[in-house]
Write a structure and sequence with these properties.
alpha/beta, Nucleotidyltransferase, domain 5, nine-stranded mixed sheet
Length: about 625
């Protein structure tokens, strides 16, 4: 327990999530989040599932404490229940799953079943370790930071221990979960099966499948609903396991699944055919229908006007957009780190509120808990010292003209890497670790995908728009600060497109679809981030100056990374990404670097160096 200057004891809780994907840690002090970060940002291994040693080190340093000052450490699920599920699943298909079982057992016996020992070994914590259930962590991460005194809660993901979805309600500082959907019946696993079958990586390629969907027609929808999944009116589902191989195998789908959809799975990196586009459109439509039925049932049973969402499926921004537009809930709040990383936050909050019985701080007002900017920041002086030490030329921007200078570069068609303030927690870049461009450009999407991000050309980019101007460009009547819902570009901004699905994908990409083509998807939708002056002032000012220069309050915002790598964390990460790509400008706090001024980039054999966190 740490003692502050006033002599008042402050209670510190460390939440941990790990061993599956997107491991993370969160430090909570007297119910407020001091810091939260994913391990991948420090290890540079995307979706890193390992114990979050580096993320914990950051959280402790951000809080100015040592491990000995921690009052509680809590893990975000109950491994013994997950092991029980795996064991029962293996028994149900044995001996078919022997290979998969033999591969899983060493990790379970070595780490997953011995979390307290692992925590003691990795960070030296010697007190008892607490555990929450997986979907309890999701529910806590959704409700406690929300602006609601009372709300319904829905969590949907792949699988926790046994639960794959749950719903209930939160009131004051208490959460009650009423019902669960259990493994193997899972919306997340259903969507991931199609992610796998269309040639993308499970647990990371789901965004690609969602982005591919507008290029196809949902012609497999009825087949999916008749053969693959039985959807009930209350949103519960039952998967036809005859088509899946995840119970005992190392694959998501089997030969029967392939036969049903006209051939084997697409091989990764192979050409995308119309079949994959139509499969993407079909499963996206099915997923939306399932979620909308679930939301309808939750509203019916709770009778509440507010809804909180979490779990990996809550990152499906197309489905979220439909919830905002079509559900009977008046207000919806989605946890920005809705996936497993957010479980670290939820576990810590669950201990503070449910285990210790503490109240919530001003849930109806502006809340520190709702900020997505929970990671490390680097002072301008530290960045200057780093650049000077390495001999990287830069100019220091005058704070008074900083935003206008950056906006001018964007308006000239330059692609700008932007690092400013505390790093975002969760999968979205929200103006702290972003790559920025001109939304009016017809070339930006192609250039950014191929020369900056090194990713599939069909993937769309998100718009950041001044909050007060959002309805001038998009069909939206709500805030979207976390980039978690889609909205259509206004019809008066849309441009007609040629009809006919026989036009090749790359040709369809070249057709200008609106006044802001760089952020308009094929179906005129956009994954929207609204930016206010209170959310992130420096970023708001850049967009405001861009609006003054161009008359357009919208810019392109994509995450500051290349395909296969996590979003950058440190100035070193940012500079390396800048030099490895065809970005034109790099801004780090008030330091601006131009590509043409930099020395020739040479890849070091051991490029990782440690830059101390402020």
């Amino acid at each position: 327990m740490i003692l502050l200057e006033e002599g008042i004891a402050k209670l510190n809780i460390l939440g941990i999530s790990c061993f599956y994907h997107d491991s993370a840690s969160c430090l909570l002090r007297d119910g407020l989040i001091v810091g939260a970060a994913q391990e991948e940002r420090f290890s540079r291994k995307k979706h890193d599932p390992r114990f979050p040693t580096r993320a914990i080190k950051y959280c402790l340093k951000e809080g100015g404490i040592s491990v000995q000052d921690l009052d509680y450490v809590v893990f975000y699920d109950k491994p013994i229940l997950t092991f029980d599920r795996l064991l029962m699943s293996y028994i149900s298909v044995a001996p078919k799953g022997l290979r998969s079982w033999l591969e899983a057992i060493p990790l379970w016996l070595g780490k997953k079943l011995h979390v307290p020992k692992v925590i003691h070994k990795e960070i030296g914590y010697e007190k008892d370790v607490l555990f929450t259930e997986h979907h309890e962590s999701h529910a806590a991460s959704a409700f406690y930071p929300s602006p609601f005194e009372e709300a319904a809660i829905l969590t949907v993901d792949g699988v926790g221990e046994w639960a794959t979805a749950s719903y209930g309600f939160g009131r004051n500082n208490q959460i009650s979960l009423l019902k669960e959907l259990h493994f193997p019946n899972s919306v997340g696993l259903l969507y991931s099966a199609f992610t796998y079958f269309t040639g993308f990586r499970v647990n990371s390629g789901e965004y690609k499948l969602m982005g591919l969907a507008p290029y196809g027609r949902p012609r497999y929808k009825d087949l999916i609903l008749s053969e693959i999944v039985d959807l009930k009116d209350d949103g519960s589902i039952a998967l036809n396991l005859a088509y899946f191989d995840f119970l005992g195998g190392l694959r998501m789908t089997n030969r029967r699944f392939s036969k049903l959809f006209g051939g084997p799975p697409r091989k990764p990196e192979a050409d995308i055919t119309q079949r994959e586009m139509d499969l993407a459109a079909s499963i996206q439509t099915v997923c939306e229908e399932i979620i909308l039925k679930m939301v309808k049932q939750v509203h019916k049973e709770t009778g509440l006007k507010n809804l909180c969402l979490a779990g990996g499926v809550a990152l499906n921004c197309v489905a979220n957009g439909r919830i905002f537009r079509e559900s009977d809930f008046e207000e919806v709040w989605i946890q920005p780190a809705a996936g497993d990383a957010g479980g670290a936050v939820g576990a810590a909050l669950s201990v503070w509120h449910r285990y210790l019985g503490n109240g919530r701080p001003r849930p109806e007002g502006a809340s520190h808990l709702r900020s997505p900017y929970m990671g490390p920041a680097f002072s301008n002086e530290k960045i200057k010292a780093y650049l000077e030490k390495r001999g990287y030329p830069f100019v220091e921007l005058d704070p008074e003209s900083r935003a206008r200078t950056i906006a001018a570069r964007i308006s000239e068609g330059k692609i700008v890497g932007y690092l400013a303030g505390r790093m975002e927690f969760g999968p979205r870049a929200l103006g702290a670790r972003s790559i920025l461009g001109d939304a009016r450009s017809e070339e930006i999407q192609r250039v950014m995908n191929l020369k900056i991000k090194f990713r599939e050309s069909f993937r769309p980019f998100a718009p950041s728009v001044l909050e007060e101007k959002a309805s001038d460009y998009f069909e939206v009547d709500t805030h979207s600060p976390y980039m978690l819902l889609t909205a259509d570009v206004r019809k008066d901004k849309q441009l007609p497109q040629p009809s006919g699905e026989n036009i090749p994908m790359l040709e369809r990409l070249k057709v200008k679809r609106s006044d802001i083509p760089a952020v308009t998807h094929l179906d005129y939708s956009a994954r929207l981030q609204t930016v206010s002056g209170t959310d992130k002032r420096d970023y708001y000012e850049v967009i405001s100056e861009f609006y003054k220069l161009t008359g357009c309050p919208v810019i392109v915002n994509t995450s500051f990374n290349v395909r296969g790598e996590p979003i950058v964390c440190t100035p070193e990460d940012a500079y390396r990404c800048f030099m490895r790509t065809e970005m034109d400008v790099l801004v780090m706090e008030n330091c601006m670097l131009l590509k043409g001024d930099q020395p020739t980039w040479k890849e070091a054999p051991n490029w990782r160096e440690t830059l101390e966190l402020d």
